[in-house]
Amino acid sequence: MDVPSSSGIRPTEGWRRWLAIPEVPRVLPFALFLIIGSFQGKGFAGSEYWLYAAKTLLIGAMLWALRDWLPEMKWSFKIEAVVVGIGIAALWIGLDGKVPSLDELWGLTRKLVTGKPPEPPKPETPWNPLEFFGDAPALGWAFVMVRVLGRSLVVPPLEEVFYRSFVYRYLANPKFFELPLGAWHTMAFVVTSLMFGFSHPGQWVQGIVCGMAFQALVIRNRRLGDAMLAHATTNLIISVYAIATRQWQFT
Q1: Across residues 27-51, what is the average pLDDT?
Q2: CA 40, CA 2: separation in Å to the nearest integer?
Q3: Number of structural domains, the chain?
Q4: CB neighbours (10 Å) of residue 72?
C-alpha cells in the first residue's frame, strides 16, 4: 500500500512523474552505468569482476523496469541488422592495433608542439577472469559468461537508447520526443557518431564507423531494434573471438 507523502503525492506517483520526463529514463541508466564503471578495479584485488557483474545485473534490471517509459527499446530481428553487425565486428577486429589510439595521437601532438617525447602509455591489466581465478575455473568462466551476456543483451539497448534515440534526436531538436526515429539531421548524425567513436579511445575509428552504421539502420528502418540487434551481433562475435583466441583486449 502506498503511503501519501507530505506533499499529498503518493511516492509511486512522484516516481512516475519524474520518469515521465523523457530525458530521465534515457539518460539515468547510462549515467549510472558509467559512474559504477569508474570504480572498477579500484577496490580489492578482483573487485572489477564482481563490480562488473553487479553493474550488469543492476542496469539490466533497471532497463526492464523502465521498459514502459522506453517504447522505442524493442528488439527487432532482421537479417540486414545481423549483416551490419557482422561487418562491424570484422572491422573492429581487423583494425585492432593498426590505428593509433586517441592517447597515442595526443602524445604525438604534444611532441610536435612541445618537442618533448610522448609519455609511455600506462600498462593496462587485461580483463582475464580465467587467469585471475585460476584456482577456481568455474568462477572465472562465470564472470566470462556475465561479460558476454552483459555486452550482448544489456549494453546494446542501453547505448542505443542513449546515443541513437536520445542524443541524436536531442541534437536535432531539444524536444526530441517529438522527432521520429527515422528523421535525418546531418549535424546530429556526425556529432553522435563522433561521440560514440571517441567513447572508445583505443578503437575510435571503428567506433565512428560503428556509430554511423547503427544510426543509419535506425534512420532507414525507423526503429531502434535493428541497431540493438546489430550492436548485439557485433559484441557477441567480438566476445566469442576474444575467448577463442584468448585475446582479452577485445573484452
Answers
A1: 90
A2: 36
A3: 1
A4: 19
Helix axes 79-94, 225-245, angle to 10 degrees: 40
Task: Give the DSSP per-residue string, 26-67.
Answer: HHHHHHHHHHHHTTTTSSSTTHHHHHHHHHHHHHHHHHHHTG
Query: What's the domain range around 140?
Result: 73-250
pLDDT band at 4 (very low <50, low <70, confident <90, very high): very low
**Is 14 inside a domain boundary?**
no
170 belongs to a structural domain: yes
Q: Is residue 35 one of the residues assigned to a domain?
A: no
Question: Does position 1 have pLDDT exceeding 70, yes or no?
Answer: no
Q: Which residues contact 62 (CB under 8 A, 6 or more apart)?
A: 28, 29, 32
Q: What is the pLDDT of residues 170-214, one digit of tens each?
A: 999 999 999 999 999 999 999 999 999 999 988 999 999 999 999
Q: Give how far the C-alpha of residue 152 lies from the chain's centroid of Cα atoms, to the nearest Å.
A: 10
Residue 216 lies in a domain: yes
What letter would DSSP give residue 124? P
Mean pLDDT, to the nearest integer, of 121-127?
Answer: 69
Q: Is the pLDDT of residue 124 over 60?
A: yes
- Give me 139's grid cell: 568462477
User: Helical H runs in the chain?
Assistant: 11-19, 23-37, 47-65, 79-94, 102-114, 129-132, 137-149, 155-159, 168-172, 186-198, 204-221, 225-245
